[in-house]
Each structure stands twice: as C-alpha cells, then as structure tokens.
Amino acid sequence: xxxxxxxxxxxxxxxxxxxxxxxxxxxxxxxxxxxxxxxxxxxxxxxxxxxxxxxxxxxxxxxxxxxxxxxxxxxxxxxxxxxxxxxxxxxxxxxxxxxxxxxxxxxxxxxxxxxxxxxxxxxxxxxxxxxxxxxxxxxxxxxxxxxxxxxxxxxxxxxxxxxxx
Length: 165
What we know:
Shape: elongated
Distance between the termini: 52 Å
CATH superfamily of the largest domain: Pleckstrin-homology domain (PH domain)/Phosphotyrosine-binding domain (PTB)
Low-confidence stretches: none
Number of domains: 2
C-alpha cells in the first residue's frame, strides 16, 4: 500500500507494455486510479466507484497471432534442421526455442483487455492481460463497485414465448 496525502492506495494491477510504458491500477478509498507512465511523464485517470456502470472484458486476437508466429517459426526451422545435409544445429536450437515460446504462450492462455464503462466514457484499464488474471481483477472490481453502490437487483424478464408463465 502507498500512502498519498490522506488516502491509502492499494495496487491492484501493474503491466509493462514495453520498456517505456507502464500502466498501474490503484484502489483508493472510494475510487480507482489508473496511472500510465510513458518515459518522462505520467497521466492519471480517476474513476469513482459510484460512477462505474459496467466492467467487461474483450478478447484480443494477439494470442492467436503469437501462436501462429511461434508455430510457423518453429516449423520452418524444424524443417531446415531435419532436411539440411549437415543437420544444422543452429536451426534446431532456434526451432526448439520457438517451440518453447509457443508452449509457454499456450500454457498462459488467451489474452483480454479490461474496460470500465461510466455514464460518459468507456476506458481501457489494462491491455493484453491473460484471461485468468483479468477475470480475477474484473471480479474484484465488481465486488468493490457493488459494495459502494449496493447489490444490483436482477430484473425478471418475461418469457415472450410463453406469456402464461
């Protein structure tokens, strides 16, 4: 926890996108704070828990793209290793490395993006987070919002196919 002024902030999530960009999600007493650090400056966005209407995930295609890239590279260098006359060990090592990268990506699972929706905007909170971690984070934020706003009453939808029930 970090104490900033009179508030104590709890870090919920942190993600490096590359060497120069870091995005963090912090929980304050009644709000979420998203900080994004890019090389020499930081940007902050504050979301009151009372203003949050929807928390949702959107699946990203990057998981499939990386699986395809790693699989094609492993196959290419594997074929070079198998069919080269001198059994090129460098190609075999590259094929093994790309195969390991593919297996690691498959093990970690699909990638998602977490969004918050308020009355005036839809804001990306995290980008390219693995689904298991994103679901845990989404459930945690939903619980915090429900504690602040109260539990949402589930509306009973009428059965349009059978009006008598």
